[in-house]
Amino acid sequence: MFTLTRDEVRELDRRAIEGFGVPGVVLMENAGRGCAELLMRLNPDRKPVVILCGPGNNGGDGFVIARHLDNAGWQVSVRVFAEVTTSVAPVLSPDAATNYTIFQRSHRVRLTYPDHWDTYPQLRNELFDELKTAVWVVDALFGTGLSRALAAPYDEVTAQVNASHNPVLAVDIPSGLDCDTGEPLGPCVKATHTATFVAPKRGFLNPKSKEWTGEVHVIDIGAPRILVDEYRKRSNA
């Protein structure tokens, strides 16, 4: 058992990509597929899955999860929270954009514009109505890089997710939880399970974090073992 801080997560990813030549999109594919396989084990009743995707790589993991669940014949709904260009394409990180395009070309993806949350009440009401049904929720809004409290509309979405009492799988870390302290930065998704990548995060050592993470599962994303072992030795030193 070893843990990773926010800075170590960022550094490990960068070194895997730049130093070992593992494309970031491959790491994302492995992360998303691992999450999808875990969710299929956790959801033997095959309840519909609602995936909430943010604009960064955490959201990209959500698109991969959606594709693999869909490939296995599961009912999936994807909602993307991101600003858009004039061509109504979401503004996403490069690897997330790749996986968005793959999934969007064969399925409808609902876009929500954070700066215009109140302008499109129909999208908000559709989401909140969906959360009131018996579904699994995948929290792929924000990852370990988040260092400030969730603002609108994420605070309201988080409140609705928590109030639904539906089971929640958080991708890498519950949105709103500080990676290093294990304390909420403000509003925070309360997950039933957390699929975390490479190793638990440093904040998970805080007993209070359990209230937010639920059961933690470690997912291998294909980072070279010699690199991962370096962080393992550093953490255990």
Task: Walk me through the structure.
It is built from 8 helices and 7 strands, in the order H-H-E-H-E-H-E-H-E-H-E-E-H-E-H. It is of the alpha/beta class and 237 residues long. The chain has one domain (6-236): YjeF N-terminal domain (Rossmann fold). It has a 7-stranded parallel sheet, with helices on both faces. Helix 4 (94-104) links the parallel strand 2 (76-81) and strand 3. Helix 2 (24-42) crosses helix 3 (57-71) and helix 3 runs parallel beside helix 4. The longest helix is centred in the N-terminal third of the chain and has 19 residues, at 24-42. The protein is globular, with a radius of gyration of 17 Å.
Q: Give the CATH class.
A: Alpha Beta
Q: Helix coverage percent of residues?
A: 40-55%
Q: Please name the fourth-level CATH homologous superfamily.
A: YjeF N-terminal domain
Mean pLDDT over the full residue set: 94
Strand order of the largest sheet: 3-2-1-4-5-6-7
Helix segment tally: 8
Overall outline: globular
β content, as a range?
5-15%
According to CATH, the fold-level topology is: Rossmann fold
Helix-strand category: alpha/beta
Write the H/E string, N to C. HHEHEHEHEHEEHEH
How many domains make up the 3D coordinates? 1
What's the architecture in CATH terms? 3-Layer(aba) Sandwich
Question: What quaternary form is this?
Answer: single chain
Largest sheet: 7 strands, parallel
Span of the ends, CA to CA: 12 Å
Uncertain residue ranges: none
Rg: 17 Å
